[in-house]
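Hi C.,

You asked whether I'd gotten around to modeling the 452-residue construct. I have! Everything is below, sequence then structure, no commentary in between.
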Amino acid sequence: MNKKVFSLLQFLFFIVQFFLCNNSFANISNHAILVGVIKGNKGEGITLYRNDETSELMNYSNSQYIPTDSTGHFYINIILDKADYYDIGSNTLFISPNDSINMVIDIEDPSISKFSGIGADIQKYLSGNPYYKSASYLEGGKNIRRKLEENLEFILSQEQKRNVELGILTNASKSFKYMETARIKADVIISLVHLRSYYKRMFGIKQGLDSIPELKNYHSKAIPIIEEYAYNFTDKKYLALINYRYILSTIIKFNTENSKLKPIIQWSKFSQLSSEIDEAMKTNDVVLLNKLKKDIIALPNEDYRNAVLNKLSTVSNLIKGMKAVDFDFEDSDGNKRKLSDYKGKSIFIDLWATWCEPCLEQKPDFEKLSKKYKDKGIFLSISLDSDKKRWLTFLKNKEISVIEGWSSFKSLSMYNVVSIPRYIIIDEDFNVFILDAPNSSSKIIEDYFSAL
């Protein structure tokens, strides 16, 4: 997309805004228009994820790819059945039918993303929320204090600050504010639940959690707050919030006699079955997959049931001995590649990202293995960084002993990639040998290459 074309799209965007503002067709549209730029993106595109509870059961496979031009600009018209939360990079968005949003997205730091147009006020507000993957006012430990009381005071002050910001937010529906009030509350619970583990990691403490002097009053001071916030916090609508789903075990623990807990427990059962599908996939356990199908069918709630059955169907089509699914990636020289380019050889794939600490810790083992068995197969190190520049920067001045590539979770969706590091072996006939090896130096991998 050249500059002239993008300027035309911007003009069309503002025309749409004008009509929407004047309600000319606002009542007959269920579309939302997103236009703008992804900083640092040079035509790689990006994925927009819907992060509701049904999508989670399917490992977010109902995501939408947004193409970008060589300068990161994009234009997309999405169809919505209702207003909902989405993620693009590290940014959480709330998109409603008839929104027309112009955005400049920083995928790593939502606080500096920019928004304008219809629906922009809500996006600006959301950019100040703790990112859901840490979902804590302590920001994964970055904001941790030394004394327990100081942490409690900070967490509750952040809650108060967010409530004030939500209260003065204009152009937001009552339903959105209702959900955001719940999000703020859930973030307090997450902050308190994980406080001790953040503390231990950030201060490099080796002793057990209950032995840390500064946190000796955790059970008497923090737990009562968690219980107070969790009690009767049981509206099933809250399941649409990803950070609420993070605290379901806490919600269940403090609401055992609450009749409203039933739909929440129901979703938890589907979530457990979804996780068991992942485990069965790792071990190629067809018997277990068949049992899981019966368990899924036996549970009520058609939407959840169909979502997990959809995931089961996908996984069942890619187990040991079946043909591998091809995917695209770009190598470190900028060449477009496919997995199928290496048919006829054994292919060992390491899926990782620069932000994944366990990935970086295990990467040397993968590279060591590639040198040991360099004559027996192809070793692909595929980064799933959303920021291509970050991946290339990481590779600079490093000795490259494997084929380094860059792809996305979207491209590998058929491989059910929900976490990394992840190790996959494709045999010489382009069939799946293993979909999820324990680690790059596990015995099953050594035995496989030794036997070739």
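If it helps when you're writing up: The longest strand covers residues 31-38.

Thanks,
B.
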